[in-house]
Amino acid sequence: MVVLCYVFAMQIQKAKLIERKNLTENIFELKFSSEKTLNFTPGQFINIKIEDAKNFPCFRAYSISSMIDEKTFELCIKIIPNGRGSNWLKNIELNSEINFLGPYGKLIFKNNNSSHIFIATSVGVAPFKSIIEHELNNNSKNNIELIMGVRFEKDIFYMNEFNSLADSNSNFKFTLTISRPEKLWKGAKGRVNKHIKINKNTQYYVCGSKAVVNDVVRWIKEKGIPEEQINFENFG
Ligand SMILES: Cc1cc2nc3c(=O)[nH]c(=O)nc-3n(C[C@H](O)[C@H](O)[C@H](O)COP(=O)(O)OP(=O)(O)OC[C@H]3O[C@@H](n4cnc5c(N)ncnc54)[C@H](O)[C@@H]3O)c2cc1C
Predict the structure, then answer these.
(1) Domain range annotation of the chain
(2) Nearest Cα to 51, choosing from 14, 9, 85?
(3) Domain 2-104 is of which CATH architecture?
(4) Average pLDDT over residues 196-202
(5) What is the per-residue pLDDT for 55?
(6) Residue (of 103, 159, 168, 111) closest to 137 by Cα position
(7) Mean pLDDT of the region 29-49
(8) pLDDT at 9 over 80
(9) Residues 62-90: pLDDT tens digits?
(10) Per-residue pLDDT at 7 exceeds 50
(11) Which is higher by pLDDT, 108 or 10?
(12) Three-point CA angle 234, 162, 21, nearest 5°
């Protein structure tokens, strides 16, 4: 037991909040500098210890949304009404420290196909931002497509970042689709499924809320794509 506690304590890492940015009215980005280099594979997440006023701490998972960097990493977080983790993180002070475990996770880039389609709703895009930026920055020759869905125009974030990646990388295509657009919206409309192309030699990656992930994964399977080409993670 003593040994187990020791091992657990050894795994705890610390990072300092150095920047906070609001992306929408209920999504924000946090940038941390880590004590030790965070050795992660793009697509992975960390488990943050939520140290609010409640008498027992809890842990919440957040995907790393930035590329590999020796000193810093970023997260992109949606505020859940009355949610312990998201609201605590929303309010922590600049320069304060968080404790976390990880990185963990298997939603990483699979290099066994040359075509990759990423499908995300809202903050489900966080792990894909890390993967896509990493691949494109390392001159990946793969064809990469990102289909990102949000409900309303006010929920749009990272659009400029992905559009500019698409402008400078001919092998990257970005589609932002809005399920409940205003009349004047000229971009893609409807749910993410509507924009997914089925191609036998493609790796599919799906991330977002449980209901959407289940729905999209089922839809892709029904089109005949084998399980080993479908990678997914749901945020609950
Ligand atoms: C592997 C993994 C990676 C994740 N990465 C991210 C990430 O990058 N960004 C991010 O924002 N979140 C991410 N999440 C979700 C995150 O871990 C928390 O579940 C989320 O922030 C809610 O935690 P909370 O403590 O604020 O809410 P809780 O205190 O856990 O929940 C409060 C109430 O809200 C409900 N609820 C919980 N989650 C949701 C939801 N998504 N939508 C609606 N109602 C909900 C609960 O059922 C409960 O009734 C990830 C989850 C997993 C498993």
Answers:
(1) 2-104, 115-234
(2) 85
(3) Beta Barrel (2.40)
(4) 94
(5) 76
(6) 168
(7) 95
(8) no
(9) 999 999 998 999 999 999 999 999 999 99
(10) no
(11) 108
(12) 75
CATH topology of domain 115-234: Rossmann fold (3.40.50)
The residues, any chain, with a CB within 8 Å of residue 4's CB and separated by 6 or more, are none
Cβ–ligand 1 contact at 61 (below 6 Å): yes
* DSSP letter string, the chain: -HHHHHHHHHH-EEEEEEEEEESSSSEEEEEEEESS-----TT-EEEEEE--SSSS-EEEEEEB-S---SSEEEEEEEPPTT-HHHHHHHHPPTT-EEEEEEEE------TTSSEEEEEEEGGGGHHHHHHHHHHHHTT--SEEEEEEEESSGGG--SHHHHHHHHHH-TTEEEEEEESS--TT--SEES-GGGGPPP-TTEEEEEEE-HHHHHHHHHHHHHTT--GGGEEEEE--
CB atoms within 10 A of CB 45: 24
pLDDT tens per residue, range 118-127: 999 999 999 9
Q: Is the CB of 226 under 6 A from ligand 1?
A: no
How far is the centre of ligand 1, averaged over its atoms, from the C-alpha of 231 (Å)? 20
For residues 236 and 104, give the distance between their C-alpha atoms in angstroms, rounded to a whole number: 17
- pTM comes to 0.95
Query: Residues 138-154: pLDDT tens digits?
Result: 999 999 999 999 999 99
**Ligand 1 pocket check for 213: Cβ under 6 Å:** no
Whether 6 has a pLDDT exceeding 60, the answer reads no
Instruction: Tell me if 209 CB under 6 Å of ligand 1.
Output: yes
